[in-house]
Amino acid sequence: MRSAGTSRSLSAAAGLAAAVLGPVALTAILVPLRAPQPRDYVFLYLGVVALLGVGRGLAPALLAAASSFLLVDFFFVPPVHTLTISDEQDLANLLVFFGAAGLVGGVGSRRRRSQLAAEALTEQLRRANDELARLNREQAEAAAVAVRLARTEQQVRVLEESDRVRRDLLANVSHELRTPLGSILTNSTGLLSDAALAPGLHGEVESIATEARRLNRLVGDMLDMARIEGNALTLHLEPVDVGAAVEASVERLHVSSPHRTVDWEGDPPGLQVVADWDRLGQVLDNLLRNADRAAPEGTPITVRAARGARSMIVVRVSDQGPGVPEELRDRLFSRFVRGDTSDANGGGAGLGLAIVRGLVEAHAGRVWLEDTPGGSGATFAFSLPAAPG
């Protein structure tokens, strides 16, 4: 605002200066010419007044008319070099000149005001058009954003519905598959303990029970993998003693491999992690079964736990088997990747380590393969957040 007022003041001062200096400059040019009819110069002064009226407005035009009147009277109307007018005709001519100059200046001033008003209106129209264009762009952008939001909401609803259907399907499949498998296992195990079972059928019934256990494990692994990949995994997190979880997992391993030795090393004792007890047991079970399949008979499996970086607890499961082939290392934790070893029950579907990775990452940890000290066997390590305190 202040700069605009200063600009207007400077423009007005420049107009007044031009009203004075313009006629003076014209006089300085005309005096040396000594024309025979100097009274005709009034038309040149009239042109100066008209230009000032058009260019600077009414006040500079009137000031130029007054200064021109005085200059013409002093330099060109006898007696010269005085402001006295001896001829009444000259007085009438000068008065007519002054009136005409004022009229021309007024007309020029009005034209200038009209021009300025037109320019201001043009600027307002331009700004209005720019604002309208901006509003149109914003409206178009808002409409596009609304469309994207609507599509996103629709996709979210579809994903939520798909997730709900997946959860329901997993629950139904789990129930429909586990129930008959449980019946087969129960009945086949009962038959094995029945003294009335014919000796020739004992092997066949035991084979049925073995395959049923294997099928039950495969179904469980596939359902767990589907839950992990479908983000349908539910964890009940609580402080869990790592040593207690390892001991429980070792007891479960001894059901199928009673002669396998497992050495437990906790440094320091009593390490606790934030984990789901059942899912941590599942991770340990898969790693211990994997080590049991790979390790030669009579060699121990070593389980160690220690504090790691960034408030993490690192658990390592080592065996003395042949190790992991180099071509399997990059995809070891992918689905359906199997080594050359297999357990007595026919091996798995290659989902064990993929499930381990999914469960550990669901606990905000990670799992990796390490080189075993001494160069033989394999060491699988995973990290979990340490319990507070």
Portion of residues within helices? 55-70%
Unreliable stretches, pLDDT < 50, 5 or more residues? 341-346
Order of helices and strands: HHHHHEHEEHEEHEE
Radius of gyration: 52 Å
Counting H and I runs of at least 4 residues, what is the number of helices?
8
Secondary structure tally: strands: 7
Which structural class matches the secondary elements? alpha+beta
Portion in beta strands: 5-15%
Q: State the shape.
A: rod-shaped
Question: How would you characterize the largest beta sheet?
Answer: 5 strands, mixed
Q: What's the pLDDT, averaged over the residues? A: 81
Strand order of the largest sheet: 2-4-5-7-6
Q: First CA to last CA: what distance? A: 66 Å
Structure description:
This protein has helices at residues 2-30, 42-56, 58-75, 88-192, 199-229, 242-256, 277-294, 352-362; strands at residues 238-241, 262-267, 272-275, 301-307, 312-318, 366-370, 379-385. Strands 2-4-5-7-6 form a 5-stranded mixed β-sheet. A two-stranded antiparallel sheet has the order 1-3. It has 8 helices and 7 strands, in the order H-H-H-H-H-E-H-E-E-H-E-E-H-E-E. Helix 3 packs antiparallel against helix 4 (88-192), helix 5 (199-229) packs across helix 8 and helix 7 runs antiparallel to helix 8. It is 62% helix and 10% strand. The chain is α+β, with helices and mostly antiparallel strands.
